[in-house]
Amino acid sequence: MTAQPQPSARPTLEDVAARAGVSRATASRVLNASPRVSPEALEAVTNAVSELGYQPNSAARALVTRRSGAVAVVFSEPEPKIFDDPHFARLIRAAARALSEQDAQMVLMLVHSPQDQERAHRFLAGGHVDGALLFAPHRNDRLTGVVRKLHLPVVLGGRPWGSLRGLHLVDNDNEGGGFQATEHLKSLGRKRIVHVSGPADELSSTDRLDGWRRSVGADDAAVELMSESGGYTRQGGRNAMRTLLRRVPDLDAAFVGSDLMAEGALAALREAGRRVPQDVAVVGFDDHVTIAAHTDPPLTSIRQDIDSQVSHMVSHLIRLLRDEPVRAKREVLPTILVRRESA
Would 64 be classed as within a structural domain? Predict the structure, then answer.
């Protein structure tokens, strides 16, 4: 009887270390992405892994490193808002892509009710994930307080309410963007510049309003007269612009705090027979790829780079997971004006 060839044994960590000419501990540090390895050891172990076709045993590695290889992406928002606002689709896609590049599995969590918050607390505290990216923008959100008490690296998207002590976050320059949008409208010779704001319980919204307010020099009475909340929704933007047209009939420009609201505001201006930009110049905020270039007319907008924000959040989280020093707990990314036909 002819003997059947035996399958070759699966390469072990010891095989990798021997091929690389390093100790088993050094090979283990390289495979667990420890910063405490030399460039020469990193190259030798990486080459040995490739040559041997080594695949680490993820279950065994999890027992040793106490890592799951998963990161939670948590949105503290009602489900309709998550699925109706294209801004959140961009955030989710960006998070999935950035985490995939780090070989991490994304666990998406939608949290809104008190029961959701309790479940999220148990899940995050239970060792199911190595860290979390958290989007919790609302004033009375309990999740921000919860994560302060967890022994879990967490990076926030945007500035939360309350103290920033002990928190890591990556934000966009919302106030600077609001100021830049309004200054652009002033540079066009516009004199009666109104503002459509987002929800009053979100700091991104109040910061954009503050940028507009600083540019026009509005006191409290002027803010009451010249601004109206659209709640970061299309219909809200439409209703807010209708209200402002009644309250400020001679308005000649509008800074609208999101592209979704701006789409609704443009519809209200068309209904009222106001031409854009001839009668009313409009600037939005987000420069959303599915909205800004496709409105009628195409929308001038303040671009906040969502991909860059999420990429910075993931990089920040990875440094925390590796116990590497983090230069700044709060990082604020710049915004830029993208000009189109609306202003």
Answer: no
Going through 207-303 in order, the beta strands assigned E by DSSP cover 227-229, 253-256, 281-286, 300-303
Residue 100 lies in a domain: yes
pLDDT of res. 127:
80
Residue 281 lies in a domain: yes
Residue 4 has pLDDT above 70, yes or no: no
Cβ atoms < 10 Å from Cβ of 263: 22
**Which positions ≥6 away from 202 have C-beta within 8 Å?**
137, 138, 139, 232
User: Which pLDDT does position 208 carry in this prediction?
Assistant: 98
Shared domain for 209 and 288, answered yes or no, is: yes
Neighbouring residues of 167: CB distance < 8 A, sequence distance ≥ 6: 144, 147, 148, 154, 156, 160, 329
Please report whether residue 63 resides in a domain: no
Q: Cα–Cα distance between 94 and 88 in angstroms, integer?
A: 10
Question: pLDDT band for position 185 (50/70/90)?
Answer: very high
Domain that holds residue 227: 174-303
Last residue of a domain, one of 24, 54, 84: 54
CB 193 within 8 A of CB 211: no
Tokens of 180: 């830049």
What's the confidence (pLDDT) of residue 33? 64
